[in-house]
Design brief:
With 146 residues, the protein is α+β, with helices and mostly antiparallel strands. It has one domain: Alpha-Beta Plaits. Helix content is 36%, strand content 28%. It contains four helices and five strands, in the order βαββαββαα. It has helices spanning 27-44, 65-76, 112-117, 130-145, and strands at residues 11-20, 47-53, 56-64, 81-91, 103-106. The chain has a five-stranded mixed sheet with strand order 4-1-3-2-5, with helices on both faces. The protein is globular and about 35 Å long. It starts with 10 loop residues before the first strand and ends with a helix.
């Protein structure tokens, strides 16, 4: 858990990747995940974006340090996914994804260019470093606003 001496509820940005345990993520499963996330995140002052491609997830969570850690612990115990890789966990100055308690981007054929821009031939978020993960997340966040 990240500790802040001066601001115990300081902003944290956590990015992780994981793999769905049941194969490709259905639209129904994605809808259920996002609906529950929005409900929980409103209460916890968490914002973020979830990207889903075939059987993989990439997610960013932003908010107060303790709330992000509790949310991540709950997410990590969810049996709908496994093989979690924390890509980044750090204090952040301002929210990058403040417009949503949780937005979702389910990848399609039109997203190949965004993946290529960060060096991916296919969606394998666990291979990203923090910079490329943020680039991809911001790109899909901009798509979400359109």
């Amino acid at each position: 858990m990240i500790e802040f001496e001066d601001h115990p509820r300081g902003l944290v940005r956590l990015i992780y990747a994981s793999r769905a345990t049941g194969g490709a993520v259905s639209s129904d499963m994605a809808t259920a995940i996002v609906a529950k996330s929005i409900q929980n995140n409103r209460v916890s002052d968490i914002s973020g974006l979830l990207v889903i491609g075939a059987d993989r997830f990439l997610q960013v969570l932003e908010g107060p340090a303790g709330e992000v850690e509790q949310t991540f612990a709950r997410v990590a115990s969810d049996t709908r996914h496994s093989d979690m890789t924390v890509i980044a966990r750090r204090a952040g100055g301002t929210r990058m994804f403040r417009n949503w308690n949780m937005a979702c981007r389910h990848l399609g054929l039109g997203d190949a260019g965004a993946l290529k821009a960060v060096g991916l031939a296919f969606f394998a978020p666990e291979s990203l470093d923090e910079e490329r993960a943020l680039t991809l997340l911001k790109s899909f966040g901009e798509f979400h606003l359109q």
